[in-house]
Amino acid sequence: MAEHAKHKVEFEVEVDERGHVRFSRNIARELHLRRGDKATVRIVGGVLSKELTARNVTDEEIETIGTVQYEDREHVMRFLKAQGVLAADRAFRKRLKGAV
Prior knowledge:
6% strand, two-stranded antiparallel ribbon
């Protein structure tokens, strides 16, 4: 079987009361999939917070950081959310300047 270029789309799904997944849009059309075509699916529970989405963080970045750092997804997300929190704290910046 020949290897073909892979196209990727990212989207959110909703799980209904029977446990079935409903797509938010026509993914098959976007990926140009026809009946009988194969696709690879990776499912991650939950969605990115609005805060991380606003910072343009992607699931792929979270997975990459987690793999390199041997950290759980949850810890990576917590770390990324905390980025810059102390920078807005004037008292912290003063202490930091004094330590240099």
